Amino acid sequence: MRVAVVGATGYQGGAVARLLSERNHRIRTLTRRPDGDRPPLPDLEFVAGDLADAEDVRLLFAGATHASVTMPLVYEPERVRRYALNIAQAALEAGVARFVYNANTRIPKDPTRLPAFETRRIAEEVFRSAGLPLVVLRPPVYLDNLFSPWNGPALVNDGVLAYPLPATTPTAWLSHRDLARATLAALTGQGLEGRTFDIGGARALTGDELAQAFSQGLGRAVRYLPLLPEEFERSLARLLGPATAAGVSGIYHHMATAADPLLMDGDGGLSLGELGLRPAPVDEWVTRQPWQVWSNNTEEQNAGA
C-alpha cells in the first residue's frame, strides 16, 4: 500500500506509521516543521505543509492508495471542518481504496458542548458525507498515556497511578500498538466500508482493577488515585497551552459528571475481534514497558555519571 498518514508525527499516528513501515508499506505524511524531529522510518516520506492548505493536502495524497487519519489536537470547530474538507477532497481525487479515521476518543450518542467530542464528530460527518470508503475507529483511553513523565515516576517510585477518571469508571484501556494493529486491519479487511468500531481492550477495568493489573506487571503494590479534571487541565496547560489543554481535558470533565459512565466501557474485545485481533491484557502490556527509565535509582546513577 501507499498510505497517506495524517498525524504520523504524533503518538497515535506515529504508532500506525511504525507498524506500516514494519510491514513494508510506503508512507507519506504532512508536517508543518520540515526541519523538526521525524520518526526514523525508512519508508516514511515527508511533505512540508499544513492541513489548512488544500494544495498541501493534495500533495500528501498524490499517488496514495489508502489513508489513515488522526486529526491534530485542534479544537476549533471551523478550523477542524476546513481540515476535514481538504482531506476528504484530496482522498477522493486520489481515489483511495480505504480511508480509516481514528476519532481519538469515543463519541457520545447525543451532541455535547465539548469541543473534545464535537470537533471529532464534525470530522467524521465530513468524511462520511463525502462518500469515502470509510472505516471509523473510536478508541477509549490509551495505556501509553501512563508511560509518560507525568505518570511513570510516581508509578515506579511511589506505587501511585494517578489519572483524571473516576475510580469507578469502567475503561477499556488500549495501547497505541493495538490501535495501530486495528488501523492496519481496517485498511485491509474486506467488507468494512461504512462500519464504526468502538475498539478497546479485552475487558474494561475500574481504577482499582487497573492498579491491580499494574501491580502484577510491575511486581509491586500500586494504588489508583483519581485526579480532578481541573488539576489535570492546569498541569497540561503548562505543556500544551490553555486552549489545547481545555480541549483534551474536556473528555475527563465529561466523564467526571457521570452523565455517560459507560462511554469508555469495553465490549469484551468484540470490536477488535471483528477486525481479527486480540488485544494484549493490561498486565502483559505493563510487563513489556521499560519502566526503569523512570526510577529514582536511574536518575541518581545518571546524576553521578
TrEMBL record:
User: Which residue numbers delimit the NmrA-like domain?
Assistant: 2-230
Say which domain of life the source belongs to.
Bacteria
Keywords of the record, alphabetical order, are:
NADP
Family label: Belongs to the NmrA-type oxidoreductase family.
- Matching PANTHER family: NITROGEN METABOLITE REPRESSION PROTEIN NMRA FAMILY MEMBER, NMRA LIKE REDOX SENSOR 1-RELATED
This protein is called: NmrA-like domain-containing protein
Q: Which organism is it from?
A: Streptomyces purpureus
